[in-house]
Design brief:
Shape: globular
Mean pLDDT: 84
Strand content: 15-25%
Structural class: alpha+beta
Distance between the termini: 85 Å
Number of strands: 13
Largest sheet: 4 strands, antiparallel
Radius of gyration: 27 Å
């Protein structure tokens, strides 16, 4: 309350004439906090009256002014710098990077759009074109001028997806796949290989991490008394642009570089995007800028966005003596006989942590599987050891047997270009889970006459 009175007194307490008062707009930086530790939203602006007595001005106001005014300049600091509404002052957002963090991970260093374009090997104008710098809301005007190819995929069943904050959940049966076009895809691959892959994900994350797989995700849950499976709702679309900017800032990049990197790795669909069945509610899930499902950078950024979630959940489950892993949007928790009695505490606390990390759970997909039933984790049976599902093994064995008797051409119903390689891959997966069963299938594969 004292802060509010001080602020009002500072704003309106001057007795000088209006002609002597000079006003200017100063944006509060993200890194600064108000007294009491409360963070102020960066979009809120503060009207400052020059000439106000420094004795009457609160100390924290003086501190804010000194640290922010240094980033404002009347000249253009670099190309595409942000300016005030009066277009007389510009904000230099390239001064708050942490080069020591970048050097420790051997990451490329750049601060301005021109330096970023030089690192990517493209012209700065092409960089601005890739992020739709010329449009007012930084989104493509239509599908043809977008840098993504949009494809709707029908889900197995209708699901309730969480949309933007303060909005109602959406009932939908469609998922949007956004595949980047050639130029943007090359840029995203460079960002992935030279930046994102050098930032390690949490040890509990097994999806899209080199050296980890669905098998490594399942192994901690072998032979447990109970397995709990949870699913994050609309995982990629709920990773918003502001969160991606924060990820690049935490790596060590300045605000300007983080903003441009986030624009290159996120997507906002055009307002005119066609939706199956004309369902505008489904399109509302993808209108705000988000991680596109189909971009090469999205899995790595999604893992980094869930780093805090993994830290908190792994610590919580460890306190109760259980195990926790995450494969993309699939959360798996397991424990022994004593852990079963803690489920009344574990599940509500887990849901609370997920909400506080700004994710949502799909309660329709929550499963609690006890020892007496088949415990399946990311497609791997974990009751006694990692094993393949019986129905999948029987199906693959029947395909191989028919290939031996009738010829492989009669079994390639999905028209695989290299049917032999397809079968070898499936056999290798079985061998990884169950060596004995894999060897049995391999012997059948070797008997196939591929000329038939």
């Amino acid at each position: 309350m004292k802060f509010l009175f001080d602020l009002l007194a500072w704003l309106f307490g001057s007795r000088r004439t209006p002609q002597e008062i000079v006003r200017e707009q100063v944006a509060l930086p993200l890194s600064l906090t108000w007294p009491g530790g409360k963070r102020r939203h960066p979009s809120i602006r503060l009207t400052i009256r020059q000439g106000y007595s420094s004795k009457k001005q609160p100390k924290y106001i003086t501190k804010l002014l000194k640290s922010e005014v240094s980033t404002r300049t009347s000249s253009v600091p670099y190309l595409f710098a942000n300016h005030d509404a009066d277009r007389r002052h510009f904000h230099d957002l390239s001064l708050d990077g942490d080069d020591s963090r970048l050097m420790s991970r051997e990451l490329p260093m750049f601060r301005t759009p021109q330096q970023l374009a030089d690192w990517l090997g493209i012209r700065v104008g092409e960089l601005a074109w890739l992020v739709h710098r010329g449009t007012s809301d930084r989104r493509p005007p239509d599908e043809q001028r977008s840098h993504y190819v949009y494809h709707w995929v029908k889900k197995r069943s209708v699901s309730i997806e969480a949309g933007a904050p303060m909005s109602c959940p959406v009932l939908t049966q469609w998922r949007l796949i956004e595949a980047p076009k050639q130029t943007l895809k090359a840029v995203q691959r460079k960002i992935l290989t030279e930046i994102l892959e050098k930032v390690p994900a949490h040890s509990a994350a097994h999806g899209f991490v080199r050296g980890r797989s669905i098998v490594s995700n399942a192994r901690p849950h072998v032979g447990q008394a109970v397995v709990i499976k949870l699913d994050l709702q609309n995982f990629y679309a709920n990773v918003t642009y502001s969160r991606v900017v924060a990820i690049f800032r935490s790596i060590g990049y300045c605000r300007e570089a983080a903003i441009w990197l986030a624009r290159l790795t996120t997507s906002a669909v055009p307002w005119s995007l066609s939706v199956p069945d004309g369902d505008e509610g489904t399109k509302s899930l993808y209108v705000r800028r988000h991680l596109p499902q189909g971009a090469p950078t999205s899995p790595a950024i999604a893992n980094l966005s869930a780093f805090g979630l993994d830290v908190r959940l792994s610590g919580l489950i460890k306190k109760f003596g259980g195990n926790y892993t995450r494969y993309a949007d699939d959360l798996t928790i397991s424990g022994n006989d004593d852990f079963r009695y803690a489920l009344r505490c574990v599940i509500p606390l887990t849901e609370q942590i997920v909400r506080s990390e700004r994710f949502s759970l799909n309660h329709r997909k929550r499963k609690v599987i006890r020892r007496g039933r088949r415990q399946l984790v990311t497609g791997v049976v974990v009751n006694q050891k990692t094993n393949i599902r019986r129905d999948e093994f029987d199906l693959l064995k029947a395909i191989l047997t028919n290939c031996v008797k009738l010829g492989p051409s009669t079994q390639n119903r999905d028209a695989h270009e290299d049917f032999a390689a397809h079968l070898r891959g499936r056999i290798a997966f079985v061998r990884q889970l169950n060596q004995a069963r894999g060897e049995k299938l391999l012997r059948l594969f070797e008997q196939i006459d591929w000329l038939r």
